[in-house]
Amino acid sequence: MAAQDSRATEARPGPGAGPLALLRNAWRQLTSMRTALMLLFLLAVAAVPGSLLPQRAVALEKVGDYLRAHPDSGPWLDRFYLFDVYSSPWFAAIYLLLFTSLIGCILPRLRAQAESLLRPPPAAPSRLDRLPVSLSHPSSRSVQDVAAVLRRARFRVAVRDGAVSAEKGYLRETGNLLFHTALIVLLVGVALGSWYGWHGNRIVVEGPEGEFCNTLQQYDEYALGPRLGAEDLPPFCVRLDTFHAGYLDNGQPLSFSADVTYTENGPEKKKSLAVNSPLRLHGANVYLLGHGYAPVLEYTDRFGRRQTTTAVFLPQDGMLTSSGVAIFPDANLDPATGRRDPSQQLGFQGVYLPTVPDNVSDGSSKHPEERNPALMLVAYQGNLGVDNGIPRSVYSLDKAQIDAGRLKKLGEPHMLLKGGEPWKLADGSSIRFLGTKKWATVSVRNDPGEPVMLAGAVLLLLGLLPSLALRRRRVFVRVTDGVLTAGALAKNEYPGLAEELELLMEEK
């Protein structure tokens, strides 16, 4: 009984052995290839909401529109970071677990593969006829002759104890490891881009007034990586000189290009941009995205004071039917008192048609080129709501001001203006359509992870080819009393192993 109690005491785990065993098992599970594949699949599934729902880092305005259109479900989706998928805690957790799992999978296999590359093929077994593929026939060749044949076939060969051991296809595992290492490199590239990358979008109008410099205040929308600040942005300025667009007769786009002038701590330089030909600067690339028209309007108030504005109109269809607003908050300033009555501000809601259709009531352009341009305007007078400090869209009038009666239509319901035509309003003021300027949306981006991801993609292909094309197999041969006996086995399924062995052992 005492002996049994002693053995039970020796078998009982000591303090801390239980948690250590649990951690060891958890690490083994995490670093298994099955877990890595599951995490990779989970990461792909987790990225799906990022492609289905608008993301704040790319389209902040669309996120706001979605939240206003879905007041019930929108806040719940936002609570689970579905509008910030790629910066969410749960996406980062999957990402880090996958990163750890891949490293834990690869390191032991790298060591084993390095040892196998340096180690000669194992000794031949005693019974070659028990291998999956085997053959035996009379032969006049010696062991050295067989070894020479296998070397010419690019086998690693070792001759020991009168038998030949040969191995081929060991680079398959090297390709497999290279493939999985490339996945880690890709993850590192994504992490670098997420931490240190940034982007900003800006609508730029032709001419000097459309010039912008690389500061956050001059972007319509921007996003900085968590490891970057506004002071880390490289200094440069860009001006859109001219924009060129070509179309087929049916309105299908043919070509887009832009001539820009830029400065980068030096004299001005010129560059022509295209959709797939960005302006490459130090620390940033400038890409050409969308384009459209910006009507130029001259407003003369009832005191004879003139103001000119260039209003960006946003396209509503493929024919560049565009809508927007032009506001004059400083209109009707009384020259006698120098005071401005907020209730006398002017705003114009409009639709621009590059090519007016035969039936104007259709309300859409016939072609995206300016073949018969016209601007349809609706005038509003009253308080525009620009002085209350509340952010508002620059592409539409404040609907709340209209609904509250603080903005009212002035004069006729609408007026269709051609280039240079004036519109006399009921309060004695007038608006004149002077023409248009073209604008382009440029996206300024910097992703320091791009070179790393390119290297990872190249490694991925280099590793994938041998892992798919090669088959690891071993061949063992003995020659005894004029009888050649050979056997072979493959690490993975290899239907052509028997045919290959017969060709290698064939008398020549």
From TrEMBL:
Residues 33-502 form the ResB-like domain. GO terms for cellular component: membrane. Coiled coil: none annotated. It comes from the Bacteria. Keywords: Cytochrome c-type biogenesis, Membrane, Transmembrane, Transmembrane helix. The keyword Mitochondrion does not apply. It holds the Pfam family ResB. It is found in: Membrane. The chain crosses the membrane at residues 36-53, 90-110, 177-198, 452-470. GO terms for biological process: cytochrome complex assembly. It is a multi-pass membrane protein. Its main location: membrane. The keyword DNA-binding does not apply. This is Cytochrome c biogenesis protein. It comes from Longispora fulva.
